[in-house]
Design a protein that fits this description.
Layout: H1 3-19, H2 33-39, E1 46-55, E2 58-67, E3 77-92, E4 100-118, E5 121-136, E6 147-161, E7 166-175, E8 181-190, E9 195-205, E10 210-222, E11 225-236, E12 240-252
Antiparallel strand pairs: 1-2, 1-12, 2-3, 3-4, 4-5, 5-6, 6-7, 7-8, 8-9, 9-10, 10-11, 11-12
């Protein structure tokens, strides 16, 4: 996916988010929303997420939360997401001694969104602010994504259960910050209520690089949380072929 594609995705997603401006959420049949709010102010209204990703020449971690301010997470309605992360990567360049440079990355985002049910699944659109800093270990005037930049980010998250045991996940995001983008799709089969196995494909990139990925995943559920572990092969436009591993956790308050 190039810069033009990521910008087109951003424009389309932003337009769809604008069209979804009428708030609606399903009322609980046994208790009014205001009564639920006073009895349990945060329960089933916020979930936390965190994770880490290790690849051949990079390592990143992230954390954050998503809240449903006007209803429950299982209901359609507005969302607020706050996330932050950081990491380090190596890349090849002819502008530094030895031909390899390193960079530290820090990023944060504050987004608002709307979830709605469609076609037997759910779709959530987000739009908001994004800031990122890429600090190089050695000066490199040829690095296109260095320094601090702030801009607009849009994202879409999709979920659908095709059968009682087979489900699919998809997400995509694009940002004006360093023209960065991300997309991922996964299909998994539950062998029990607690464990699922599946396949995934993804692509990451920005002004500097493009990185397709393909691998396998395992998801396990325990209590009000789920843990996902995935790994496979990648092809980085700068560093070539390699391996990756990702661990993420999701927990409902």
């Amino acid at each position: 996916m190039g810069v033009l594609a990521s910008r087109a995705l951003a424009a389309g997603t932003a337009l769809a988010a604008v069209l979804l401006c009428a708030p609606a959420f399903a009322a609980d049949s046994s208790m009014r929303l205001d009564e639920r709010w006073h009895s349990h102010p945060l329960r089933d209204r916020i979930f936390f997420f965190a994770g880490g990703d290790i690849a051949s020449n990079s390592a990143f971690t992230w954390t954050g939360f998503t809240a449903a301010p006007l209803g429950l997470l299982e209901e359609d309605g507005w969302r607020i997401r706050v996330a932050g992360g950081g990491g380090r990567y190596r890349y090849r360049t002819g502008n530094v001694a030895g031909g390899v440079n390193e960079a530290d990355v820090m990023s944060g985002e504050l987004m608002t969104g709307y979830r709605f049910s469609v076609g037997g699944g759910t779709a959530t659109f987000y739009v908001g602010g994004h800031i990122e800093n890429q600090n190089l270990a050695a000066p490199d005037p040829g690095h296109e994504a260095q320094g601090t930049e702030a801009g607009i980010k849009v994202a879409v998250e999709l979920y659908r259960r095709f059968t009682p045991r087979l489900f699919g996940l998809a997400s995509t995001a694009a940002s004006t910050v360093h023209a960065s983008y991300h997309a991922r799709a996964a299909l998994a089969y539950e062998i029990s209520k607690a464990v699922a196995f599946g396949l995934e494909a993804a692509v990451n990139g920005d002004e500097r690089y493009n990185e397709p990925r393909a691998g396998i995943l395992m998801q396990t559920n325990f209590g009000r949380a789920s843990l996902s572990l995935s790994g496979g092969f990648l092809s980085n436009s700068d560093k070539g072929d390699g391996l990756y591993g990702t661990l993420s956790i999701y927990a409902v308050y």
